[in-house]
């Protein structure tokens, strides 16, 4: 009997050893994700007391794999941060550069969604179907707005290899038609590899009153006068980090920290603005000279670098009126304060990493911009960006009346385009212009104290945002996966930058890179750049047909700022580069290049999904909030009715029944002291109110608001009428309406006005309906064909501009 027991013990031990070997072997195979759990040899022992369990299967990151932090500032130009010679004090970026490396020839995609898609996948933006922002997606490969499953995100690769993952701030990687409870949710952050997400889904948000999600759950606004999203998102990131390192100190993290700063609206507390009072009175021309001088002193640019010429549309500072100079200088003070505040908050996150003892083995990428500085404020800037997107001009005199409010919660501002040129010193162009380094070159700092021996040094190898994923995988000792969830993967197209960490003179390993945004396109190859400006950000039409675009040619190794066009003197080289662009364009799904306007705005013609799908009626219910314009029926430029079935108790019911938009443009149907009221807020410039004189009777009521449009085209006025139980109780004129957009970041709400209030007639956060709402139905009336044509013609460029800005 003892002999059999001995044999049994040996057999069990052998099985356990075999299982352990299976586990160990499986853990080393990281090219197929998720790493499959090993099969276990069946155990024949009856009694668990006599059996040894196999080792627990657990996926862990490789020994010594670093924590990873990617910081991505929005809409900041190459020449704006102090670390790269700019006027904006960014001590956190400066400190990381002093303890690490600055890269002076790092490149992005010239627009935010494409850059983010490339960053988070390691593939070129067209390869992951993000040739533009989601708002103008098409049916063509390269522009569908839907990341293919064959390009697994970096976060998912790291998560499946044992990392904790979190994203904070701006996302803008989910197609607009998927941002609703109806989904699909496959491309929401927490389905793209992130365990945690706290931020906003679109291209921009109100920093004082953002529309936020925690995971996939909408966050109720704080309505705290001291609230600012930049601080809030940092608080959440610090909290998550402390949890992660407290509970699993040996598990590496991956944090993607992407503020809305410094994208419009430029929102920042007054104390940050005050730091820059008078700092920009010299204007953008003198500022360009000052930045270039500092860049030379820092070694960021070669000593023989010249300022590239300004675009002809940008006026000389000295040619401006005193009023223009006063307004524009203040706009830049606000922007600069916003930039410094963002860097300060990032410093709090860095301090939290240091406090956990993790700084030494944390690999940090701090990208000072996802594209060049933005010229989308137009030549004069705007107090309320919504005016621009509805084709309404804000005169200088009107902006000056409220100049002291800039940066605060009553504004939604953007600076004048001249500051974008200065912000991209020493180059000519800016955001959207993918054919010039002003649109595609941004400062990058990398810090990894444990492994980067050089401190405060400069690296000038050519690199691109697709290289960051490959760099992280090499640093972590992880292979690129061949399969993820059983799907063959497109190889990561970027190259690792690790070779450059301790080799300042090493030749760049990224030799060829195409660029393309809306027809602005270029090709870089081994020290040469060829490109064409198809349309400037402020131009309404392309400069030529795509086949007739005028190309330029530069020897980048000798001409840092692209000032000596060699196209005429070296046509053979230009032809070689143009042919290379076409080859890369075909390979990366760039073709066909799509510079269409009105066709891409119509989902049916563009070939993308449309949540409303041409519906003429929509019924919504109490508690449905945050419905963005892509997920809500459009009442713009036509007649419509809104019918609400409600119940009240007594004659003093209050609160919002339904609304859309907010302080900067929108409409609302509500009760005040029991009386029905409809208010239309026209782009924040004027409000039109139609109110009943008598309160509702207690019990059930049907409130109907009818708007009869003048049918005179884009933004036409009309007559509004209020009915209670089919009896007219109020009527009035609405002289102007929003023809194109109610809000970039505030949706439609039922039973409350959650964000900024559409009207000051009720308070923010204290306007929940006190009765019961059974349903609200919006019915659209037919639109005359000639009016539709006029609206389409007038709206196409404004909507394209909005899509480009996001």
Structure overview:
The chain has 806 residues and is an alpha+beta fold. 25% of the residues lie in helices and 20% in strands. It contains 17 helices and 30 strands. Strands 8-7-6-5-9-2-10-11-3-12 form a 10-stranded mixed sheet, sandwiched between helices. The longest helix has 34 residues, at 322-355. The model is unreliable at 1-26 (pLDDT under 50).
Q: Helical region count?
A: 17
Low-confidence stretches: 1-26
The helical percent reads 25-40%
Strand order of the biggest β-sheet: 8-7-6-5-9-2-10-11-3-12
Derived structural class: alpha+beta
Radius of gyration: 29 Å
Number-wise, the strands total: 30
Estimate what percentage of residues fall within beta strands: 15-25%
SSE layout:
Elements lengths: L1 H26 L4 E2 L33 E6 L18 H8 L2 E3 L2 E2 L4 H10 L32 H6 L4 E7 L25 E5 L12 E2 L2 E2 L10 H19 L5 E6 L11 H5 L8 H16 L23 H34 L6 E7 L16 H5 L6 H6 L15 H7 L13 H4 L2 E5 L9 E3 L3 E2 L2 H10 L6 E2 L2 E2 L23 E6 L2 E6 L2 E5 L19 E4 L15 H17 L10 H4 L1 H4 L10 E4 L19 E9 L6 E8 L2 E8 L2 E8 L3 E6 L7 E11 L8 E7 L2 E8 L13 E3 L21 E9 L4 H21 L1
């Amino acid at each position: 009997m003892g002999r059999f027991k001995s044999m049994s013990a040996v057999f069990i031990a052998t099985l356990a050893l075999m299982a352990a070997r299976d586990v160990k072997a499986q853990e080393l195979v990281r090219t197929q994700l998720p790493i499959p759990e090993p099969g276990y040899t069946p155990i024949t022992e009856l009694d668990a007391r006599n059996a040894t369990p196999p080792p627990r299967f657990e996926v862990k990151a490789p020994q010594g794999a670093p924590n990873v932090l990617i910081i991505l500032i929005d809409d900041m130009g190459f020449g704006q941060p102090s670390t790269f010679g700019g006027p904006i004090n960014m001590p956190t970026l400066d400190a990381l550069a002093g303890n690490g490396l600055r890269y002076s020839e790092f490149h992005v995609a010239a627009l935010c969604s494409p850059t983010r898609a490339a960053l988070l996948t390691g593939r070129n933006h067209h390869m992951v179907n993000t040739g533009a922002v989601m708002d103008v997606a098409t049916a063509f490969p390269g522009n569908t707005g839907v990341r293919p499953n064959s390009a697994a995100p970096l976060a998912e690769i790291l998560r499946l290899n044992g990392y904790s993952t979190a994203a904070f701030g701006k996302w803008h990687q989910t197609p607009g038609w998927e941002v609703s409870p109806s989904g699909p949710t496959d491309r929401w952050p927490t389905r793209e590899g992130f365990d945690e997400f706290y931020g906003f889904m679109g291209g921009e948000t109100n920093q004082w009153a953002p529309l936020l999600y925690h995971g996939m759950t909408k966050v109720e606004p704080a309505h705290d006068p001291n609230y600012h999203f930049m601080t809030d998102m940092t608080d959440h990131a610090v909290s998550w980090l402390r949890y992660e390192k407290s509970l699993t100190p040996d598990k590496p993290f991956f944090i993607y920290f992407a503020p809305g700063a410094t994208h419009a609206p430029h929102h920042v507390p007054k104390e940050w603005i005050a730091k820059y009072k008078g700092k920009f009175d010299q204007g953008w021309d003198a500022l360009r000279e000052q930045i270039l001088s500092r860049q030379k002193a820092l070694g960021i640019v070669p000593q023989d670098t010249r300022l590239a010429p300004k675009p002809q549309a940008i006026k000389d500072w000295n040619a401006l009126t005193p009023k223009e100079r006063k307004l524009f200088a203040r706009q830049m003070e606000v922007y600069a304060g916003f930039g410094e505040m963002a860097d300060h908050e990032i410093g709090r996150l860095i301090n939290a990493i240091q406090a956990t003892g993790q700084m030494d083995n944390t690999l940090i990428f701090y990208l000072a911009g996802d594209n060049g500085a933005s010229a989308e404020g137009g030549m004069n800037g705007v107090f309320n960006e919504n005016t621009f997107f509805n084709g309404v001009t804000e005169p200088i005199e009107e902006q000056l009346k409220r100049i002291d409010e800039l940066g605060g919660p009553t504004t939604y501002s953007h600076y004048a385009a001249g500051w974008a040129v200065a912000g991209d010193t020493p180059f000519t162009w800016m955001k959207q212009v993918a054919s010039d380094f002003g649109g595609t070159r941004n400062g990058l700092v990398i810090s990894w104290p444990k492994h980067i021996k050089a401190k405060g040094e400069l690296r000038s190898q050519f690199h691109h945002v697709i290289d960051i994923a490959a760099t992280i995988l090499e640093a972590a000792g992880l292979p690129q996966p061949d399969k993820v969830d059983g799907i063959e993967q497109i190889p990561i197209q970027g190259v690792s930058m690790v070779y450059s960490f301790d080799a300042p003179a090493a030749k760049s390993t990224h030799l060829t890179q195409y660029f393309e945004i809306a027809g602005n396109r270029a090709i870089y190859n081994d020290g040469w750049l060829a490109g064409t400006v198809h349309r400037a950000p402020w131009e309404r039409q392309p400069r030529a047909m795509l086949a007739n675009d005028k190309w330029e040619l530069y020897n980048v190794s000798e001409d840092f700022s692209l000032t000596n066009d060699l196209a005429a003197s070296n046509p053979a080289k230009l032809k070689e580069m143009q042919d290379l662009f076409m080859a890369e364009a075909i390979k990366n799904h760039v073709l066909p290049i799509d510079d269409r306007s009105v066709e891409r705005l119509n989902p049916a013609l563009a070939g993308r999904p449309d949540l409303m799908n041409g519906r003429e009626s929509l019924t919504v219910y109490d508690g449905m909030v945050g419905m963005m314009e892509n997920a809500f029926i459009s009442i713009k430029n036509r007649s419509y009715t809104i019918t609400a079935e409600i119940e009240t108790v007594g004659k003093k019911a209050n609160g919002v029944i339904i609304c859309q938009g907010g302080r900067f443009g929108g409409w609302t149907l509500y009760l005040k002291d029991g009386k029905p009221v409809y208010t239309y807020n026209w782009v924040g410039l004027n409000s039109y109110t139609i109110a009943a004189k008598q309160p509702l009777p207690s019990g059930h009521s049907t409130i109907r608001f009818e708007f009869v449009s003048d049918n005179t085209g884009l933004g036409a006025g009309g007559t509004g009428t209020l009915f209670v139980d089919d009896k007219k109780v109020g009527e009035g004129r609405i002289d102007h309406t929003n023809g194109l957009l109610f809000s970039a970041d505030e949706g439609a709400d039922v039973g409350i006005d959650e964000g900024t209030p559409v009207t000051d007639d009720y308070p923010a956060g204290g306007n929940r309906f006190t009765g019961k709402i059974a349903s609200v139905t919006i019915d659209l009336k037919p639109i005359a064909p000639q009016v539709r044509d006029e609206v389409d013609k007038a709206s196409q460029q404004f909507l394209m501009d909005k899509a480009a800005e996001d």
